[in-house]
Amino acid sequence: MQSSYCYLCVQKRTMQMISVEVRKSQHKYIVGPRGLVLQEILHTTGVWVEVPGTDSDSATITLRGPQEKLGQALTQVWLICTCRTYLHACTGMHSHISHFTYPVYS
Predict the structure, then answer these.
(1) Per-residue pLDDT of the chain (106 residues; tens, 9 = 90+)
(2) Residue 101 CB neighbours (<10 A)
(3) pLDDT at 15
(4) Strand ranges inside the chain, DSSP E
(5) Using an 8 Å Cβ cutoff, are 1 and 52 in contact?
């Protein structure tokens, strides 16, 4: 299995990794439609987010990238999960929420 790495991070030896547990039911929101949320996180932070496949029992998500950007990427992942959980819990109220700092995908 081949791993994906940020070439500049490897070259400068500044690449770090953190792993977090996220409920499997939230993984689809982190990936987004056609992987768009993953691409957005990579584009804005330079951090690669690895989500286990749907056939895996693992709930561990791994973030790899520059140490100074890991916090920003982790915050984006947390916001995605938190916003989705909040919207799901408040069914019917989501139409009244007019501002988010990060897009939420169905």
Answers:
(1) 444 555 555 555 578 999 999 999 899 999 989 999 999 999 999 999 999 998 999 999 999 999 999 999 999 999 888 876 544 444 444 444 444 444 544 4
(2) 8
(3) 85
(4) 15-21, 48-50, 60-66
(5) no
Using an 8 Å Cβ cutoff, are 59 and 21 in contact?
yes
Domains and CATH numbers, the chain: 15-96 (3.30.1370.10)
| Contact of 42 with 48, CB cutoff 8 Å | yes
CA atoms within 13 A on the CB side of 24: 8
- As to burial, measured by CB atoms within 10 angstroms (0-12 exposed, 13-18 middle, 19+ buried), residue 55 is exposed
Residue 85 CA to residue 77 CA, distance in Å, equals: 12
Instruction: Mark 63-96 as b/e (b = at least 16 C-beta within 10 Å).
Output: bbbbeebbeebbebbeebbebbeeeeeeeeeeee
Helix (H, G, I), strand (E, B) or coil at 88: helix
